[in-house]
Structures are given as structure tokens and as C-alpha cells.
Amino acid sequence: MDVKKDILWRVYLIYFIICLFGVAIISKVFIIQFSEGDKWRAQAASFSTRFIDIEAVRGNIYDVNGSLLATSLPYFEADMDVNADGITDAVFNDNVDSLAISLSNLFGDKSMKEYRKMLRKARKDGDRWLTLQRDVSYTNLQKMKKFPILRRGKNRGGFIYLQTNQRERPFQFLAARTIGKINEEGTGKPYGLESYFDSTLQGKSGHRLMQKIAGNVWRPINDDNEVDPEDGDDIVSTIDINVQDVAENSLMNCLRKHGADHGCLVLMEIKTGEVKAIANLKRVPGDTSMYVENLNYAVGVATVPGSTIKLASLIAAMEDYNMNLNETVDVGDGTCYYSNRKVSDAERPEKSVMSVLEVFEHSSNVGVTKLITRYYSKDPQKFIDRLNKMNLNTPLGVSIPGEAVPYFKDTKDKTWSQISLQWISHGYESRITPLQILNFYSAVANNGKMMRPMFVKEIKNKGKVVKTFAPEVINESICSQKTVDKAKKMMEAVVLNGTGKALKGSAYQIAGKTGTAQMGLVNGKMTYQASFVGYFPADNPKYSCIVVVSAPSGDAYYGGAVAGPVFKDVADKVYSTSLEIHKEINAVQPQYALRAPVTKQGSHDDISEILKVLKVRTTSPDDKAEWVSPNSNDSISIVLQPKYTEEALKRGIIPNLVGMTAEDLFYVLEKYGIRVKIIGSGAVSTQSIPAGTAFTRGTQIILQLI
N or C: where does the chain have the smaller number of CB atoms within 10 Å of the terminal CB? Predict the structure, then answer.
């Protein structure tokens, strides 16, 4: 009995424990299902569905005239769910060959048999995601939408496509470093306007619900995005692509001609600081004729300025000590010494005593160093302070990342020496970028007002201006107007009589400064940097420009000979297309032209109307004559002699056609059935059928025009 009770007790205990365990399981099920249901359902969904960011279309970059400099083109990944519910075996088998042929004809990367094999294999393996093609253009995507099976759509035809955007520069390498790039591959640093205005251009990403399927592949659940992306804003740059093209080609030709390592060019509008063209070219290693834009030398690389800094040195002495252009200095034979360090001129001077004006126009190193020593030897820091007041030691703060910081040492610098004053004054022991030195020259041309260089004018959204960038003043006056006038006179003299004479003789006057700097020994040979910086027209400055050519390998390395011609090429292009800077030929138009123009024979009414507009006096013995032969009876009027061309044709007689134009000939001769053959252009000089000869319909006449 005791044994039986003991067994029952054990059975009841086990039964009770099992019941408790069952209750616990049921309770947990209820808790998971109802109390924590939302939490676990969301977690489960997170493993199979996910919101994927949809990239917004990046904004465009335009030049100042509206030409596209950078844009985002849509490309698509075209995929197919070969086992979609709507694709029955009958649908697939009846259309797979046609689909394979269509894909092969469109893309040409696989044969029809290869495409068919790929489609059949995917169908057999139960694939729900087959990539048909990547980087499909919008045009080709539209064609694919009409292909067999695919034209049935996503659910019935399994056609799925995902959009990506690729950045393109329509003008390829033109201004490439300035336009810039966002390194989407994750390599390298972003640069240029693309980088600086990234937040403006990139827009806002959208969201699309995607589902995870076999093979760790994600596919969209719905046809449309859950949240559509917002396209980025467009920016309108100050670059003029027409001038940019001339600038880059001229610089390219110069670099090739002189075998230079690299070079740069910047063209800027003086009053506003707008940069109209900026070119940076570097020789490709191993190819002496190939140059590319791989570094923005104009903005990001500070080098010794050479002789171009002499303008600032002499302005400092003029401003601090009222130095006069007629003041003289003894340059001797073009050499001098400071602490046993030799300073020499490029050429032996024609005379041993020069004025300040002559020192500058002939770029005398000896003359500049002696003048600066004369005024600043007792207080060299005053010279450095004056350069700093002209903003030469301060970055410009432009909208191009990576601007180099200029460097002009002062007397507290541990590297300051007894020759630092003289070496800085003629372009050494200092560093400055081409853009920074150009901006200084622009300030002089702008009567002392220094502007911040501009690269962007506007920001637009869907064609509507949302922000405008106004010109910014950095320094209201880098020096007095009296000093500015002296500086302008010096720069004009450089082109008229000095080292820049190669730029003389244009329809407009150029003012500027040549520069030739020694850059150091390479393989035992001295390398040079040639430059020219200036502005035009000299009497009414509108544009400034700098050209820098580094390490020319030929015999020519002076700034005037190497960089000067490039400056002139660009200046000629700008001048020829900028009517606002041309001088008026005649401020007051006379009532009548001073000399009658040469006029061909033709219609009385047409010629009379044209000459009336040109304000040329005319007389006509017969106002009713349809055709006339204009003759000038004096220098200011024309007699419209009647030419009875049509009267002769009406009688079946070939008239005298000499002097008539092709347009009139076709009109009048073919009207009477005469076939006309024209040789040459201009006006009739000879005719194959003499005047006065009878003709019939269908007769051919050959007319020689000159």
C-alpha cells in the first residue's frame, strides 16, 4: 500500500510539473502573439524587407551662358524575375527565342543562343532575379519595355529595373579640375565645385521598400518609391566655355611647343572678380605631347612669383615714401652683390643708370633690389607690413577647396637673413599662387579695389533662381590712387618698350608684367618658370589674365616669349567677342555715307531700299525700270541706270547679263524657260550666249561668276 501511494505521488508530481510546463508554454505563446506581437513581427520583417535609400538626381553645373559643364545621366540595371507568377510555361516557351534575339540585337554582347541559354537556365533553377544588363541608357530601357515577355510588366513579365545616376562632363577635360568630382568609388578626395557645393548639388535621397529573396538579393516590393528623392539644385558658374576652349588649347599648344612640364591660365573680370576661364595642364609621364588636368595649379600650388612680384615691391616704395617714376638708380653692368650673393639681370642693360620706370619695363633685378634697399634697409619689416596690407599674405577664400596659403616671411622668422629683403623684393624667399598674384594685378587695374575671385553666379532649382552671389570686396584700397596711376603707367611701358613688346601692336592696348623665375636644378640643369600677368584694354581695364608655364625644356624660357603669346591668344578671343569693350568707330553718324559702296546689278526696288538704309544718295533716270545697273558718278552717290533685261527677254532676245547676281539670274531667266548653269560665285563676268542672240524655251546658258 505504501509502495502504491509512493508511485501515485510520483506520478501526480510529474503530471503536475508537465501541466505547469504546458501552461508556461501556452502563456509565452499568448505573450509573444498578442503582447509582444508587433515587436517580433517588425523584427522578422527587418530580416526580409528593408527601406533602401534612392539616390537623388544630382544638380547640373552650367557655364555663364547656360552650357552644361556637368550633369547626371540616368542609367539602369535591367533585371528579370524569370519565374514570376505571370510567366507561365507556355508564355515563356513561346517568347524566349524572340526575347533572346531582341536582347542580342540591342546590346550585341552575347549571341541569341547565349541569351536563350541564360534565360532557360534561370527558369530551370528557379531564379527570381536575373540581371539582363547593367548601365542601360534611358533610350535602350524604353526599347526593352517593348520586348517579348518584358512588355507584360513587373508582375506578369517579371521586368524589374533600378535607376542609378552617372556624372558626365559634356566638354570632357575642359576646366575639369575646377568643375571637380565626387569620388563615388570611395578613392581619393573630392575636389572642385562639385566638392564645395556638394550639399547643394546632391539633393535629398528617397526611400524604397525592398524585399530580400534567395541569394541575398534585394528586389523592390512596389513599382513606385515610398518616398521620392528630391533632385539637387543647379549651379551657374562664371566660366565661359567658349573662352575656356581657347584658353586650354592655346596653353596646350604652348606646353607642347616648349616641352614644359605643366602650366596654368586664369582669366578674370576685373570689376566683379568673376573667373571666366581657368586651365591647368600637366604632362603625362612618358608622353611628351599629352597633357591632362590632374591638379589645380592656379589655386592649389604656391610657388615663387619671380619678377611678377616687382610690381608690389615698387608700389610699396611709392606708397610709403612717394617714390617717383623718374627717380634713378645705378644698375652698373647688371650685377650686384649682397653678402657675397650675386644678383644679376637677364641681359646687360643698355645704360648704367635707369629710372624707376625703366627698371620695371626692363625687369631689372639689380634696379629693384637697390631701390628697395635704399628705402627699407633700416626697417625691412615695414616693407613686409606693406605687402601684408595689400593682402598678399592672405588666402582669397575662394569656392574651390584646397587653396594654398601664400607665404611672405617677416623679420621675426627664424629663416630671415641679411639678404631676405632683397630676395623677396624680386620674387624669391616667398610663395604665392597664380590666382593670388592675378588678383593683386586686378586690384591695381580696378583702381586699388581688390575683389574676391568668383566661380559661381547663381543657384537654381528647376530653372528658378534661389540664390545669387554678389561680388565681394576684400580690400577697398590696397594703395592710393596716385600710386595706382604710377603702377598702371609702368605696366603699359612693359608692353610698349620693355620685356612684353611681343604683345604690342594689337587693336587694343595691353598692360602687364613678364616673369621669369629660377626653380632649381633638375639633372644638373636649371629649370625656369615663365609667366605673364596683366590686363586689357589698358585704357579701360575689363579683364585680367595670368599665364604660368613651368619647366620649359627648350632654349626659350622668358615670360614674354613663352607665356606672352598665350595671353595674347586669349585676350584676342575675348576682345573680339566682347563688343562692350570696343571703341566706337563713329560716335556721330553722318547723314550720308562718305563714300558710295560698290553695288552689283539687280532689282531696282531691292537696291534702292538697301542704299536708302545705308544713307547713300541715289538717282534714277527711270523709276519704273525693274532692273538697274548702279554706277557711281562721284564718291558719295549712285546712279541707277535702267537695264531693260526683261523687255529683251519678252522679245526672245538674250540680254546683257554682266554684273547681275545668281539670285536675280535664276528668277528672271528661268521665268522664260532658259536653263541656267552657274560657274563660280559673285556677279556675272561672262555669258556663253552673247547679248542680242535669239533664244527658245529650253535653251541653256552658262554664266561665269566672279
Answer: N
Q: Report the alpha-carbon distance of residue 600 to residue 610 in Å, rounded.
A: 12
The H-or-E segment that residue 255 falls in is: helix 241-258
C-beta of residue 338 within 8 angstroms of C-beta of residue 489? no
Spatial CB neighbours of 297, under 8 Å, sequence gap ≥ 6 = 262, 263, 264, 280, 282, 434, 548, 550
Contacts of 318 (CB under 8 A, 6+ apart): 479, 482, 483, 486, 487
206-213 vs 473-475, strand pairing mode: unpaired
Report H helices in 68-191: 89-107, 112-125, 138-144, 153-157, 176-179
* Cβ within 8 Å of residue 620, ≥6 positions away: 604, 608, 628, 639, 640, 642
Enter the C-alpha cell of residue 562: 613663352
Q: Does 74 or 136 have the greater pLDDT score?
A: 136
Backbone angles phi and psi of 418, in degrees to 5:
-70, -15
pLDDT tens by residue, 228-272: 678 889 999 999 999 999 999 999 999 999 989 999 999 999 999
Classify 470 in phi/psi space as left (phi over 0), alpha (psi -120 to 50) or beta. beta
- Band of residue 172 on the pLDDT scale cut at 50, 70, 90: confident
Q: Say how many Å lie between the first and final Cα of the chain, rounded.
A: 144
Q: How far apart are CA 357 and CA 500, in angstroms?
A: 14
To the nearest 10 degrees (0 to 180), the angle between helices 434-445 and 481-497 is 110
At 578 the pLDDT is 76
Give the whole-angstrom CA distance, residue 689 versus residue 692. Answer: 9
Q: Residue 79 has which C-alpha cell?
A: 533585371
The rounded distance, in Å, linking the Cα atoms of 237 and 271 is 17
Phi, psi of 173 (to 5 degrees): -85, -5
Higher pLDDT, residue 552 or 9: 552
Say which amino acid occupies 436.
Q
The four Cα atoms 9, 13, 18, 20 give a dihedral, to 10 degrees, of 140
* Helix pair 241-258, 564-577: axis angle to 10 deg: 160
Query: What percentage of the chain reaches a pLDDT higher than 90?
Result: 48
Dist. CA 509–CA 537, nearest whole Å: 5
> For 295-316, what is each residue's pLDDT tens digit?
999 999 999 999 999 999 999 9
Residue position matching grid coordinates 540595371: 77
Of 182, 123, 198, 185, which Cα lies nearest the Cα of 158? 123
Collect all residues with Cβ–Cβ distance below 8 Å to 45 and sequence separation of at least 6: none
Query: Cell for 245?
Result: 576652349
What value does the CA radius of gyration of the chain take, rounded to a whole number of Å? 40
φ, ψ at 519 (rounded to 5°): -105, -5
Query: Does residue 278 contact residue 178 with C-beta atoms inside 8 Å?
Result: yes
Is-contact 334 354, C-beta < 8 A? no
Q: Which DSSP state fits 180?
A: -
CA 393 to chain centre: 28
Q: Count the residues in the chain.
A: 706
**How far is residue 621's CA from residue 623's CA, in Å, rounded to a whole number?**
7
What's the pLDDT at 590?
A: 47
Distance CA 327, CA 317 (A): 12
Contact assessment for residue 387 and residue 316, using Cβ atoms and an 8 Å cutoff: yes
Where b means 16+ CB within 10 Å and e means fewer, 498-520 reads: bbbebbeeeebbbbbbbbbbeee
Question: b or e along 366-375 (b: 16 or more beta carbons within 10 Å of the residue's beta carbon)?
Answer: bbbbbbbbeb
Cell readout for 450 is 581688390
